[in-house]
Amino acid sequence: MKPSIYVAKKVPGEVAEYLEAHCEVRYWNGNEAITKEQLIEEIGDAEGVLLSGTPVTSEVIAAAPRLRVISNNAVGYNNLRLEPIIARGILATHTPHVLDETVADLAFALILAAGRRVTELHAWVREGRWKKGQEEELYGLDIHHATLGIIGMGRIGEAIARRARFGFEMNVQYYNRNRKPDVEEKLGVTYVGLDELLATSDYVLLMLPLTPETRGMIGAREFGLMKQTAVFVNVARGPIVDESALYDALAQRTIYAAGLDVYAQEPIDPAHPLLTLPNVVTLPHIGSATSATRMEMASLAARNLVHALQGKSDIALIPELRNV
Ligand code: NAP
Ligand code: GLV
Description:
- By secondary structure, the chain is α/β, with parallel strands linked by helices.
- It is built from 12 helices and 12 strands.
- 35% of the residues lie in helices and 14% in strands.
- Helix 1 packs parallel to helix 12 (291-309) and helix 5 crosses helix 7.
- It starts with a strand and ends in a 15-residue tail after the last helix.
- Residues 75-76, 96, 99, 103, 152-157, 176-178, 207-211, 213-214, 235-237, 261-262, 285, 287-288 line the site of NADP nicotinamide-adenine-dinucleotide phosphate.
- Glyoxylic acid binds next to loops.
C-alpha cells in the first residue's frame, strides 16, 4: 500500500506526478500559504508532509499521529520545532546545495544595489529628479577591491566568497562557529573574530541559520561597531537582526546602507519604518526564487520525502537528526 502524504505547498506538475506515483497524495488548495492552524486541521493521518516554512510545533505533531517524515522545501528549517520531532522519532529533511549559487547571486544583487544606490537612483530618474550637473549627489561606494565580511561561512557563504574573490577581487574575511582552513586555502579568505569583522568590513553580509544562538545576534552594539560607510546585507533570516537598531543606524547614517531579503515578520508591513528609508534596498525573500532552482528544490524535497518513507538513506536529513 502506498503511504499517505499531505503536500502543504504548491509543487510543479512533474513533481506532483512523481509524488502520486509513490504515495496517496492530498494537497493544500488554498491560494495563500497554509498557516499552522490550517495544517493542524488538514494533516490528519498523513505519514509524510511536504511544506515550506510553515511552523511545525508540538501541536502540529500531536495532530498527526501517523507522521513519520517532514520534508521542508527550503534549506533553512527554523520553522521546525526539533524537540517534539526528535521525541517522536520523525525524520525531517531540507534542501541544501541546490540553491547555493542562486542565493549567492541574489546576495550580490543586494551588495551591488545597496553600494551603488541602484534602487534609490532608479527612483530619482523616474521621479524627474535627475538634473544636469549633479555630481557627488549620485556617488555610491565601490564594490571591487572593497572588504567583504561574511558572517556564516557555510555552503552559501562560500558561494558568495567565490564571487567576491574571483569576480570582484574583493578582500574577503569571515566569522563562523568553526574555522574553515580548507575554504581559507581554496578561496584566499581570512578568519577574524565577529567584532573585528564588523569594525573592518566595507560590506557586512549575514548568512547564518536562525537558531536560539543567532536570534538577535546583530543589534545596536554590533551596528555601533560598523564603519560609517558600511553596507549591511541580510539574506539569512530576519530575526537574527534587531530591526529597530538597524533602522536607527540607517536613519542616523551611522552606517551607509542596507540590502534586505528577509525580515522579522514576513511579508513585512508596508508601513514598517525601514521601508521609509532611501538607503534600504528591499526584496520579498527571493533568495532562491528562479524557476530552475525552485524546480530543483521541489524535486529534492519530493525525493527526500519518498525515499525517507521507503526507508532509504540517501536523503538530506537536517543536521540535528544525523546522529540521533
Ligand atoms: P550552512 O551551510 O549550514 O551554513 C551556515 C553556517 O553558519 C555554517 O558554516 C555554520 O557553522 C554557521 N553557524 C551556525 N551557527 C552559528 C553561530 N551560532 N555562530 C557562528 N556561525 C554559525 O547553511 P546555508 O545553506 O549556507 O544557509 C544558511 C542560511 O541561509 C539558511 O539556514 C537559511 O536560513 C538562509 N537562507 C536564506 C535564503 C533566502 O531566500 N533569503 C535562501 C537560502 C538560505 P558550522 O560550520 O560550524 O556548522
Ligand atoms: C529560504 O529561505 C531557504 O531557507 O531555503
